[in-house]
Amino acid sequence: MMDRPKDGPLALLLLLLGHMISALEVPLDPKLLEELPQPPTITHQSPKDYIVDPRENIVIHCEAKGKPHPSFSWTRNGMHFDIDKDPKVLMRPGSGTLVMDISGGERSEAYEGIYQCSAHNELGTAVSNSIVIRQSRSPLWSKERISPIIAQKGQSLILHCRPPAGLPPPIIFWMDNNFQRLPQSRRVSQALNGDLYFSNVQPEDSRSDYICYARFPHTQTIQQKQPISVRVLDMDSLNDTLADYLNDTDLFSDKPAEERAPVFMVPSESVSSKMVLRGEVLEMECVADGLPTPAVSWVKRNGEIPSGRASFLNFNKTLRIMDVSEADAGEYRCFAKNRHGSVHHSIRVTVNAAPYWISAPRNLVLAPKEMGIITCRAAGHPKPSIRWLVNGLPIEDAPKDPSRRVEEDTLIFSEVQTGSSAVYQCNASNLYGYLLSNAFVNILAEPPRVLTLPNIIYQVIRNKPALLECVVFGSPVPTITWFKDSRSSMLEGNAYVFHENGALEIHMSQPSNSGKYTCVARNNLGISENHVYLEVKEPTRILRPPEYQVVQRNRDVVFECKAKHDPSLVPTMTWLKDDRELPDDERFRVDSDRLTITDVTESDAGTYTCIMNTTLDQDSASAQLTVVEQPGVPTDLELTDPGARSVQLTWTPGDEHNSPIKKFLIQYEDALHQSGVWHNLTEVPGTKTTAHLKLSPYVHYSFRVLALNDVGFSHPSMPSRQFRTSPAAPDENPTEVKGHGTEHNNLVITWKPLTPLQANGPGLQYKVMWRQLDMEKDWTSVSVANVSKFVVSGTPTFVPYEVMVQALNDYGPGPKPSAVIGYSGEDFPSAAPGNVRILVLNSTLAEVHWSPVSLESVRGRLQGYKVHYSRERSLHRHNSHQGKQRTEIFSPNKTSGMLPDLLPYSVYSLRVTAFNGRGEGPSSVPQRFETPEGVPGTPSFFKVSAIDLDSLTLEWGPPHERNGRLSGYTFKYQTVNSKNDLGLLEELDLPSNQSSFTLHNLSHSTRYKFYISARTQRGSGPTLTEEAVTILDRAMVSPQVDIATQGWFIGLMSAIALLILILLIICFIKRNKGGKYPVKEKEDAHGDPEIQPMKEDDLTFGEYSDEDHKPLKGSRTPSSGTVKRDGSDDSLVDSGDTQFNEDGSFIGQYSGRSDRDATHDSSEPPSPVNAMNSIV
């Protein structure tokens, strides 16, 4: 075939026509396809190599579309296939699919051949591939007698399968009589041809049921070869069995097999070659004989084996490369190696290729007078040849068309005319296959049509691209322009991308891009337009993503995920665990913006992702959950390297549970001395699993280990085996050795005893030693057991001793102890401090001085001095109370001290003693001293005793604590207004013998505040205060005219009494009839505490209370003689007696009867006055 022209004008023409082709494809719109004429197109066909099952009907598919719908015809082996002549062959209605019915016993071999389908309509003919029909075959195994095989141990062996040839080839596998696959290994394996190879046989290979099976895929039948018997002999048994099999068997060798270097069994030659087609699977194998069994490896010379497509199978004996490409060609080497040597084999691989498409022909739609091209480009090895057909006929045999020109793999059309539509076939073929493709040329003249639905609303997220579709069809190809909101200005500029298919793209959508868009399609036959709308939404964003969480097992955990989104979009929050749905577990609770997991378990650990979805976009964020808990229990405790006082402990750590182990705690139990009690022995870092333990003698140890992480300690491990140490002499002596006396003639030696662990052996005792410091050379000693003190009697008083305590047991004494200094017991001091002097500083403070006692008289360690003092009496005749004794303690280096908090104007007695650890010595001679006067205490009471219009009388009592001779009282007073503001303060000095005072010329109805304090020569004491109010009118305290004696009042009361009497009679009558007077219910309901209820027994009203402790409403009860500020100041006029309390409050009865007749006999008629008073 001729080379393609390389001239510039043709290349430019092809480029231009290629652009036109891409613009004239018919859109797959159903309505449009129904209206437009279209040449046939093959849509479905059977594979080129079609193997059929002889037990089923043969179905050869051929489906096509076109307008008008195509009709179908077939050829068989290049000749027209008349289906009407064979009643067993049917063509499906509306389809070209053939069905060959062989259910009546017809043989499918009769229909084998090469079939090709043609689909026709008035615009052209499309043809299918050549479909080769072959029947699947599964022939039987040829019968043969297979002799048993005897092999010497170590020899190589091949068991041949040689299955019958089938279509397609069978799948081979080896099994035994029980249909169990025979085990394979690096020593025994199945080759690609199905044979079973033994690199060297072993006695365990002896068996009588080596069976090769062949499975034929299409018929799903399995056939079996006759079983093969193999017996493997070694040198000792060979001679014994030779005679039995000599006449009936093959013997492989008469010499014992020895170890040997590898030799290839497959391939047998040193160099081999293999050809594979591009896209297929390349399999190469190397099986080697050798003892010991060789190991096989692979390399590629001058290249690498493709790791992504290559795999090593059959124990590295097979190299498989998938989807082979030209780059896989080259030389491959397999190596077989054992300890006696190595061998290699080279396989030269060549890669050829059946034709494959580079650019398959595409349908072409042209308008009259337009130009276009159809290109058919294929590659292969060898290079495929291109052959063109038109409507199924070779193009050179087809009618001539002046608008068509063939240029090798390209058809060029120019100035096409209506009626020149056709289907063109391109056939690319070489030695290894062919490609056939149909492409039609359809000549159409159509005005523009916009196929996109009108008024579509596109929604897009801000800053994301927007693609507005405008699918159009027309012939010639329409030009498309876009407008926004109105058609006044066409869209253009870098912000927009106009695609060849008519779509408008906006790279970065902004809110300003929202609105109405119009696309307009034009060609020389018409115009069409469509409107769409764009809405730009705010993006969805997660504002608060979930955070990494570390939580203990069985606790709760909460992941928060807060997001924002466009308010017009409906959001959906979804949670994932490890990119999958959350477990179906009620412990997982999803709220609007959080995920709560309760009672967390280890399986809950992982990555949790919250996804906020809208219809347009989504945002997601993830966080890790780590579940931690105490470490797992250490296991496998083992004791090694035992020593006299040491042992090595090792263990296996438990699971860390996501929290690194920080340390291990090793504990021990002493079964000899304290069984069941565990003690801490040592700690090691968490990175170690062994510890060298230092031990004590005479202990029966058991050890256990605990692990610690940030959560806490693990459970203890199981105890180790017991480890016993031998007894020894003590390594240490008792501590805290002390010597002190409890009596004046003894020395008590104490110490802290050794623990059983420190005893180091049985028979623990303590050797107690002592001697007087600087007085004795020899030590006095005694041995004691089970005690922690020893008392030395008959010692001098308070002298120093050297003291030692040494531990010893049945195996010897402990180390030499160190001496400590102790003192024997103290005695009471024998002398009192002398020269006691007292200096009174003020009325409450005095200073005492004394001379220290001599050192000899202390008879111990001087700890200080005590000053005992007490108040004997007051200098005032009215107060001679004696006080409690008090004591002040001073350090031994002091010879003076202060006596605080004395009472003024009093007589005190005082004595001084010295004291040591035993107690106090004799007292000094008692001394007396007097304190001067001080300021007095507060007066004992202060009250207002009488109130008048312009005067007030006040009373008070002298202070309980006079602290001297009273020289008088200071009296002050001032007014207080309604706002509690204080007026001008007035002051009076009163003599000490005065206990009351009356203030005159005061303002009426005015509140006053009073102050009083006592004085001595040293000054005034604390102040007492009181308040009172003068009255408004003197009538409040004068006798009043009794209103009950006035005539008008008596008449009024008589009329009221008559009315009440009538009411009482009516009530009495109703009561006797079982009725109830309703007034009584109302009175009971009101419950006025000042009106007593009517007594039903005598039909009389209760009287007003005349008890002093039940005041009238509005009256004030005195409290400690103080006038309340919130009381009423109004005067009260009453017909009864009126009186005022000492604080000015009104406490008279509001009644017409005196106290004497407060009670009366029930038979006495009620007084009208009393009745009125009760009502009022």
Q: How are the secondary structure elements laid out?
A:
Elements: H1 8-23, H2 30-35, E1 38-45, E2 49-52, E3 58-60, E4 62-67, E5 71-76, E6 79-81, E7 89-91, E8 98-100, E9 113-121, E10 124-127, E11 131-135, E12 149-152, E13 157-159, E14 171-175, E15 188-190, E16 196-198, E17 207-216, E18 221-224, E19 228-233, H3 235-245, E20 250-251, E21 260-266, E22 271-277, E23 282-285, E24 287-291, E25 295-300, E26 310-313, E27 318-321, E28 330-338, E29 341-359, E30 364-366, E31 372-375, E32 377-381, E33 385-390, E34 393-394, E35 404-407, E36 410-413, E37 422-430, E38 433-443, E39 446-450, E40 456-461, E41 466-468, E42 472-475, E43 479-484, E44 496-498, E45 504-506, E46 515-523, E47 526-537, E48 541-544, E49 549-552, E50 557-560, E51 562-564, E52 572-577, E53 580-581, E54 588-590, E55 594-597, E56 606-613, E57 618-628, E58 635-640, E59 646-652, E60 663-670, E61 674-685, E62 690-694, E63 700-708, E64 723-724, E65 735-740, E66 746-752, H4 756-759, E67 765-772, E68 780-784, E69 789-793, E70 800-809, E71 812-813, E72 820-823, E73 834-842, E74 845-851, H5 855-858, E75 864-874, ...
Helix pairs in contact: 6-8
Oligomer: single chain
- Rg for CA atoms: 63 Å
Report helical residue fraction.
Answer: under 10%
Helical element count? Answer: 8
> Averaging pLDDT over every residue, what do you get?
85
Bin the strand percentage: 35-45%
